[in-house]
Amino acid sequence: MTEGSQEHHYTENVQEHLKQVESLLHKHALLEEVIHRQELPRDDRHGLLDSIVHKQHNAELQRKLAGMHPADIAYILESLPIEERMLVWDLVKSEHDGEILIEVSDAVRDSLIESMSREELLETVSRYLRRLDELPDHTDQVFVVDRNDRFKGVLPINLIVVNEPEEIVGKLMLTDIIQLHPDDKADQAAQAFERYDLVSAPVVDEDGKLFGRVTVNVVLDFIREESETELLNQAGLREEEDIFASVWKSAQNRWTWLALNLCTAFFASRVIGAFEGTIEKFVALAALMPIVAGIAGNSANQTTTIIIRSLALGQISPENARRLFFKELAISGLNGLVWGGVAGLFAYFLYHSVSLGIVMMCAMALNLLVAATVGLGIPLIMQKLGRDPAIGSSVMITAITDSGGFFIFLGLATIFLL
Questions:
Q1: CA atoms within 13 A on the CB side of 50
Q2: Is the pLDDT of residue 70 over 70?
Q3: Which residue, of 105, 133, 161, is where some domain finishes?
Q4: Core-most of 16, 100, 335, 412, by most CB within 10 Å?
């Protein structure tokens, strides 16, 4: 089975598990509703509910959960509304609590921990710590230290297996290896793992002593979280959001950049308002100006995506930033001439005006140059200020390319068409 088919098969299995759990929860809700409708004393109803639901239906759901991987249970918990999530969480076998809490997202983990007592948490933590008696995950090599804990090298597990027990460690161990330091940033470690295909790496302090280790699963989690954070930041979201959180909490998470976007939208409307006289005389301008702004916004977002990725990989330095800037200007200039010409011909055939076609072409070419400038400049400025280059970048880019596009297009129309 190929890697792609395995991934597809895994996704289908997880989705099937989720459907089965949702079906059982639906049956639970229906049965509970039927029992509450029965004309029985309140205590009798609760007794009947306990005997039927908890002893039969919940047992079936619990058996289903018991045979699943903790990562799959975590996925299901994240995909359920809060009430159903808590019902499933109560049915999970206690010995898997710690593994599941590690797998779920931060927002969902908070909601699960809030439902647990202090005693439950202390059982969960001690069970997870006892697992450290086993060989740690992703152990592909053993770190060799001297009596003073100074790092000497690594002994790969495969060499231990294929060599005789009498072999001297000093003869087999590798000394020319990648080492990390406690002060290294997480993204630097991630780059090292990606570049050298590492499974684990030692962390050595300035005194040469073994400080700890980093494993590929931790790096992958970091990369995933960074990717999710980048997507959230580009959309103007302040933090990871539980999709089943309350309306009020979710709305608050989206306010900051929506407020800024509203301000920029008002500014763009004022730009258009300044050219009301021109638009009244050439109504076609109202239909064409969104094209200028939209194409530039898309071009700027393309540039920003490339720049943010390059910044994350450490490929941009003060020395090559200037060269990169002129390259992006050249790309936008070429695109402006090509697609501006296409847009100009489109405007000419629609409205039979050569002047309007020329204005359209020039406006698009100029606004694409603006798009290249902001698409490159905003991430670089954000990084220089010590901020995440992805935070709200798309919001700011859209505001500038929209306002700039309207101003350039309507300004040229005012000069050459009136």
A1: 6
A2: yes
A3: 133
A4: 100
